[in-house]
Every structure is written in C-alpha cells, then in structure tokens.
Amino acid sequence: MRVSHWSVTKTMSIRAGTLVVAFWLTLPFLACASDAKSASTTPTTPSTLAPATDLVDPVSRSVWKTAAQLDERWTSTWEKSGPAPGTDAQRLSTLLIDAAYLGWHPERLLKVVGWLESLRETDPRKKNYLNLNWYWGDKAVVDANGVEFLNRQAVLAWIIGGDKLSPDLRVALEQFLRQNLEGIQRHKVNISYTNITLMKAWNLLAIGEWLPDAGAFTEGKKLLLK
After folding, report:
1. Overall domain count for the chain
2. N or C: which end of the chain has fewer CB within 10 A?
3. Are 219 and 185 in contact (CB under 8 A)?
C-alpha cells in the first residue's frame, strides 16, 4: 500500500501538535518542580521512598520533597475530614500527577479519584451533564470548562503513573477518564476560545492515545487541525 507524502506529513504534524499542546499544558508543573528544587538543596525524603543513592537527578530531588509535602497535607487535613468546602478541585487533580509518579499510597489516591468523581453532574437532564464542578461543595456546574482543566491533569497522572498505579487505582482512574471523555465531547467550545480549544484537543488526543480510544483521537485530530 502506497502512503502519500501529504498523509505522512499530516500525521507527523498531528503528533508534533500533540507534543506542543502537552508541553504547553505541563509548563505549570515544570515550573512547580523548578521552584521546589530552588527552595532547598537538601529536600526532606520520606524513608519509605528514599532512593538507594544520593546520585539522583534534580527533578527527582524536587519530587521526593513533594512526597513529604503530600504526606503532611494528607495527615494534617484530608485524612481527618476530606477537602474543605470551597477547595479548588485542581488541588486534587494536581496531587494525582505527583502522587502517581511516585507510586504514593494508592489507597489514598483511590479516595482522591472518588472525591473527583463526586464532583460530576449526573443528571442527564442538565446542560452540563457529565461535566465537573470547580469547587468542592458546589451544587451545580457554574463553569463548563471544569472538565477540561481537571481531565488534563488526571490524564497526565494516567500517563505518568503507568505501571506504578495499583490495579484498583487503574480501574478507578480509567472509569473517571472515560466519564470525562463524554463530558468533554458534550462540552461546546467556540474555536475562538483558543486556550480551551487547545485543552480540549489535548484531552481528546491524550485519552485517545493512552486509554486508548480511536474515536476520541480522531476527534482530537480534527479539532487540532481546524
């Protein structure tokens, strides 16, 4: 079967576009890692996660410190009462990324995924059906971009976590992402709303590539090429 030069070029452009969108969306997390590195030259390392040698790369050093911060946050706040009313849900979805990378307490992450899932609009009669609330305690979706922001982080946790995710956590996170997919597909975004359009394209491409879901990937390609 002959493959045209245009077909190959277009496929490479889509792959490159996916990487550009991914890089743009992950810039905040790269910045956080850099900030954590510069904050201390001798990060606190939990004994259960300690590397076998001090010869670890700078990014790993910043992430090990983050593990200690996650432990402290969990025991001081969430372990006792869960998220406080008004908590930005992105605090939960961002936690998933660092924690999934570390293989940090999968039983706790199961709770986090459950909390995120509880933010979902489950009434099919509602306009924002399968979208996600932005703040903990909200009774209705007030910003339809919520599913885009929360999914972009949750799907990164899926990709980064890989085999480090426990079987139960993989099942729960996959179900969360698949519910998100329908919410994303239902979310209507004007093409002139460029940052959300790019975020939606990333979400569709990432879910399509890594779950995988061929239909979502095709939809993401079309959106990216508009």
Report:
1. 1
2. N
3. yes
Computed over every residue of the chain, the mean pLDDT equals 79
Average pLDDT rounded to a whole number, residues 137-144: 94
In this prediction, residue 180 has a pLDDT band, given cuts at 50, 70 and 90, of very high
Owning domain of residue 205: 82-224
pTM, whole model, 2 decimals? 0.75
Q: Is residue 185 part of a domain?
A: yes
Residue that is written with structure tokens 């959300």 in the block:
196
| Residue 93 resides in a domain | yes
Establish if 173 belongs to a structural domain.
Answer: yes
Rounded Cα distance, 148 and 175, in Å? 16
Is 90 a member of any domain? yes
Is the backbone peptide bond immediately before 212 cis, with ω within 30 degrees of 0? yes
CA 77/CA 218 separation, integer angstroms:
42
